[in-house]
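Researcher: We plan to redesign the surface later, but first we want a full-length starting point. Tokens attached.
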């Protein structure tokens, strides 16, 4: 299996509970698993080179600190392995302009860029071809992603099938696996939208590296309705439901059972903040250790890239031959 993290923002509690924790507890142990900091994907919108560099290191370090074990799985940086860009071009020759323009994320981000007076980078349009290359270069069968990425994985399937049909059986056709809905963490200030790392307003976002006092403050200020008591009602009381789900995810209890234990939002917030701080404590400590020893992180990423390359190279070579390119003598 293959999954990727885009270094466009600091990793959040939403990333951890929604994805990374499952990668650590389950996915890394199921056969050959690759986890990639997809830095090339961070260049499709206006970007600051120093920030991308910093966030890429930090994302890699946080994945390891969360418990991805380089002895068990492969953790690496996309741009360290040429095969991604190499295969992406072939997939651009299989994809159509129309299907790329139909991608929801492309439409949304184009609108966003236009609204803020930026020009739209061509790579924003071709991004799904690169993402498909990330997946297909490793013969990945399963791609654990959030719902917002399902359409891109569907496109990846279409491209793989089309390539196989036109040029002969070359790629494994992958499928998206979505995390269970219970692990969907919403923005504390805006419980109608996902806690995402690339948002501008940060008051409702808990970052994995937030100091404990910052976590307390953000959770205390979480938006809840003014109704009496605490009940678990996602549609009617989304703010409370979000806190209950976060607490449930931290403690292994059920949100509805937790709701019964609280008379008001204040105590629920206090306990949720504590639980989050405890959950993140070991992760923060391991991250601090890794940050103090940059050579260790470099070595892990170097080995990860070598391992990734050794898997991807023959797959991409196979695709180059199948599509009609002359093998080098
Ligand atoms: N597009 C994904 C995101 O924005 C990141 C990503 C890039 C990815 N390549 C991938 C995810 C391959 C899974 C597999 O979150």
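Model: Full-length starting sequence:
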């Amino acid at each position: 299996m293959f999954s990727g993290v885009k270094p466009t923002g600091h990793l959040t509690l939403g990333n951890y509970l929604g994805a990374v924790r499952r990668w650590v507890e389950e996915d890394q142990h199921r056969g050959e698993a690759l986890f990639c900091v997809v830095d090339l994907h961070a260049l499709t919108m206006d970007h600051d080179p120093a920030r991308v560099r910093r966030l890429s290191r930090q994302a890699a370090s946080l994945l390891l600190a969360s418990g991805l074990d380089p002895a068990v799985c492969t953790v690496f940086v996309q741009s360290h392995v040429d095969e991604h860009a190499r295969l992406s071009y072939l997939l651009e020759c299989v994809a159509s302009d129309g299907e790329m323009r139909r991608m929801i994320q492309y439409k949304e981000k184009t609108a966003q860029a236009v609204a803020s007076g930026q020009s739209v980078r061509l790579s924003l349009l071709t991004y799904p071809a690169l993402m498909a290359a990330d997946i297909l270069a490793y013969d990945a069968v399963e791609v654990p992603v959030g719902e917002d990425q399902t359409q891109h994985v569907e496109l990846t399937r279409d491209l793989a099938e089309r390539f196989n049909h036109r040029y002969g059986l070359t790629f494994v056709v992958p499928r998206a696996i979505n995390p269970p809905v219970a692990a969907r963490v919403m923005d504390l200030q805006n419980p109608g939208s996902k806690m995402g790392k690339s948002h501008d307003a940060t008051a409702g976002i808990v970052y994995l590296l937030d100091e404990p006092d910052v976590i307390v403050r953000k959770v205390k200020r979480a938006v809840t309705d003014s109704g009496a008591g605490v009940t678990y009602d996602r549609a009617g009381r989304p703010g409370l439901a979000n806190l209950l789900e976060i607490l449930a995810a931290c403690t292994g209890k059920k949100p509805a059972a937790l709701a019964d234990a609280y008379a008001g939002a204040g105590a629920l917030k206090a306990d949720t903040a504590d639980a989050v701080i405890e959950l993140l404590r070991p992760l923060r400590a391991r991250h601090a250790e890794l940050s103090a020893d940059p050579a260790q992180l470099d070595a892990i990423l170097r080995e990860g890239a070598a391992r990734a390359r050794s898997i991807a190279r023959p797959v991409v070579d196979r695709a180059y031959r199948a599509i009609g390119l002359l093998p080098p003598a």
